[in-house]
Specification:
Layout: H1 3-19, E1 23-26, E2 31-33, H2 38-51, H3 56-62, H4 69-81, E3 85-87, E4 93-95
Antiparallel strand pairs: 1-2, 3-4
């Protein structure tokens, strides 16, 4: 995949995540959104993992500025306990039923 396509795809994925967040304030220079609560974050993670398995670093990169690594880790642990996500041998998380 060319770097231009990869950047466009990453921008589209970031936009998809941002569309799920509530906008508190917006003007021509800045947009302020609320951070996702735990349930919203879990749904965002499930949506991302539907596309492909990802490790914690990849998930954190996609959600940088939206959720901390600790919150992502906690949400993944909750999803794993519920049997919705599994940790693969290579350290990537996968949504169950998508492999």
């Amino acid at each position: 995949m060319s770097s231009r396509r990869r950047k466009k795809k990453e921008a589209d994925e970031t936009e998809d995540v941002e569309n799920k967040l509530k906008v508190v304030y917006s003007d021509k220079d800045v947009v302020v959104m609320t951070a996702p609560n735990e349930e919203e974050l879990k749904q965002i993670l499930l949506d991302l993992l539907t596309e492909k398995p990802m490790n914690l670093k990849e998930l954190h990169n996609k959600l940088s500025g939206i959720a901390s690594e600790d919150k992502i880790r906690r949400a993944l642990a909750g999803l794993t306990e519920k049997g919705q996500v599994t940790l693969l041998e290579d350290g990537r998380y996968a949504k169950l039923g998508t492999e």
